[in-house]
Write a structure and sequence with these properties.
This protein has eleven helices and no strands. With 227 residues, it is mainly α.
Length: 227
């Protein structure tokens, strides 16, 4: 008889070390897929970067360009960004990856845009008034993209769910954020090209953390229902 436990996919624990180590392993396992996604999202970010490079120029043409870039960042780019997080989550879960799913967010367009706006506004307000609340909000809402894509929740419920899932993990997420900063810096130092695997590793680590906490929550729910 086959041991059913042996057939269950591996689920990492939610520690910082395991999140980065498992993220590293899965990143290389699906490297070509994730590298292609990274290239695509970089290209899709070009309009925003170009407009930002002319932020000190107030000529009419540049102003129009910046306005268009702003609406692109608000109304289109989140679809691609959330799609990238979805691809990484599938890699962490050892699920079959289809690059076209990077654009699957168009099927859930309203929820993604509203979730992006709400989370950005909350974090932005936190940074405007006091930096520390902004950091706290950023840590507690880090799972919003994964939740919207994974659970198909609306903006308010996704924010509430992220807040709930990250309870007790705030310092851990902050620590991962600090470590991620240095990983990205190291990637930039390594002839710029290293920023791609650095960013891929960071995203994989956070996807791993979400996967772990999500699994723990489901197990606790099942045990609670079964008791």
């Amino acid at each position: 008889m086959i041991n059913q436990d042996l057939q269950k996919p591996y689920v990492p624990d939610s520690s910082i070390n395991t999140s980065f180590s498992f993220g590293w392993r899965q990143m290389w396992k699906y490297f070509l897929y994730l590298f292609l996604v990274s290239i695509i999202i970089t290209v899709l970010h070009v309009p925003i970067s170009v407009a930002d490079s002319f932020k000190d120029d107030i000529t009419p043409g540049i102003v129009v360009l910046q306005v268009l870039a702003f609406f692109y960042w608000i109304l289109l780019f989140p679809i691609f960004s959330y799609g990238v997080d979805w691809i990484y989550l599938k890699a962490i879960r050892d699920q079959e990856i289809d690059i076209k799913e990077m654009f699957i967010g168009f099927n859930n367009y309203v929820n993604i845009i509203l979730a992006h706006l709400l989370a950005t506004a909350i974090i932005g307000i936190g940074f405007v008034f006091l930096i520390i609340p902004g950091i706290i909000f950023a840590c507690r809402l880090v799972f919003v993209p994964f939740i919207v894509m994974d659970r198909n929740l609306d903006a308010v419920k996704a924010v509430e769910k992220s807040w709930q899932m990250t309870a007790g993990h705030g310092w851990k997420i902050f620590g991962m954020g600090v470590l991620s900063f240095f990983i990205i810096i190291l990637g930039l130092i390594l002839l710029i090209v290293g920023v791609f695997p650095a960013a891929m590793w960071v995203t994989s680590a956070f996807a791993s953390l979400y996967h772990s906490i999500d699994h723990q929550e489901k197990v606790e729910l099942e045990n609670g229902n079964g008791s």
